[in-house]
Amino acid sequence: MRWSLLAALSASPLVLSALAAFAAAPSSDPVRISGPVTHENLTVFFIHGTSAPGKAPLTLEEALAKRAVEVRETGNVNQLEIENSGNEPVFIQAGDIVKGGQQDRTLMVSLLLPPKSGRIPIASFCVEQGRWSARGKEDVKTFASSSGHVPSRDMKIAMQAPPKATEPVTNSASDPSRRGQTVLPRAGDETSRKQRAVWDGVSRLQKNLADKVGAPVAAPESASSLQLALENKKLVTEQKSYVEALGKAGEASDDVIGYVFAINGQISSGDVYPSNALFRKMWTKLLNAGATEAIGHRNDTPAAAPPTTEAVNGFLAGAEQGIKDERPLTAGLRQETREGEKAYLFETAGAKGFVHRNYLAK
Asked: Which residues contact 240 (CB under 8 A, 6 or more apart)?
């Protein structure tokens, strides 16, 4: 799916022109945006299109519950190991949180794990600080569940955005030819910077949520754990009103393949999937994350009208037309990043087309 500049400037139907993830044939069926649907300060627009044929893969949450997938510690805080021992493919979305191990983590990239995948490395960031041992009866070497998702656009950008070039080299006696050049930070330095940004984001989110729900959300078992904060009973009660008000709208049509969230009248993020079946599997988890982010920003600004459909078109198109960066992933996949003036697009794709698209407003 690629949004054209024309689509960004008009209300014309959008055009789906990518290979579906679970089929070999391309689709040129039109797609459209519906909405808005709003509850308090969270607005949702839905993206409709033709689904790829075939059965949707298991989600990571489903696969862990069935014990078809195992996520293991490696001794490297920013890299885990994942293995699909089952007979069905498994979808992992960037931002999924895995609970347990030596520290709770969030996974950095979207993947489609094939059946009997063998052991595959996957980049991760800690969403918990200080702990490096078993928590209660949890297994210190593996992760048992994945019910949560990172509820912060800023944290997702911190994890996924490509590194920025450093300032130009102005004095390089050992290599004068490098003067005036821009250089990228070293990989280890960049990972450390991103990890600090994620920890800062967790701390800031916990503070905001505590302020909005009127009680601490940090858990006594591990005050720094994002996942345990998301399980806070008062927060879960607050989330419920958003999910009850907005959840059914995402399930009202069998051609919904994605959504865009706006918070306090400002476009925040969106996700697009190859099929309605996969969208439906992810919808409640992502709506909970969107509700949590909205709660954390409730009453931050005066009440604002929802964005227009044209603004949503422009958001998607602007990300699509951004500067391209591409890198290989595991399991025959690649990640393409496009950075526009006002938004990012992060796409995971393989030989049969795209697996997942995530749009984040700057």
From this structure: none
Give the largest CA-CA distance in the chain. Answer: 66
Distance between CA 30 and CA 263 in Å, rounded?
Answer: 27
**What b/e readout covers 223-252, taking b as 16+ CB neighbours within 10 angstroms?**
bbbbbbbbebeebbebbeebbebbbebbee
Instruction: Report the SS3 class of residue 235.
Output: helix
Spatial distance between the Cα atoms of 317 and 325, rounded to a whole number of angstroms:
17
CA dihedral 134, 139, 141, 146 (to 10 degrees): -110
Phi, psi of 237 (to 5 degrees): -65, -40
Q: How far apart are CA 80 and CA 99, in angstroms?
A: 12
Three-class SS of residue 41?
coil
Local structure of residue 273 (DSSP, 8 states):
-
- Residues comprising the chain, all counted: 362
Q: What are the residues whose beta carbons fall under 8 Å from the beta carbon of 196, sequence distance 6 or more?
A: none
What residues in the chain have per-residue pLDDT under 70?
1-30, 165-185
Report CA dihedral (20, 63, 290, 197) to the nearest 10 degrees.
-100
pLDDT value at position 176?
Answer: 53
Single-letter amino acid code for the residue at 152: S
CB count within 10 Å of CB 260 equals: 27
Question: What is the dihedral angle through the alpha carbons of 251, 252, 253, 254, rounded to the nearest 10 degrees?
Answer: 40
Choose among 337, 254, 327, 331: nearest CA to 90.
331
Q: At 66, phi and psi to the nearest 5?
A: -85, -5
Residue written as token pair 């996700």: 271
Helix (H) or strand (E) holding 290: helix 276-296
Query: Do the Cβ atoms of 76 and 57 come closer than 8 Å?
Result: no
pLDDT number for residue 331: 82
Query: SS3 breakdown of the chain: % helix, strand, coil, rounded to 5?
Result: 30, 30, 40
Bridge partners of residue 81, in order along the sequence: 72, 121
- Using DSSP's 3-state secondary structure scheme, residue 135 falls into coil
pLDDT digits (tens, 9 = 90+) for 56-78: 999 999 999 999 999 999 999 99
Q: How far is it, in rounded angstroms, from Cα 359 to Cα 37? A: 19
Task: Give the Cα separation of 19 and 318 in Å (integer).
Answer: 21
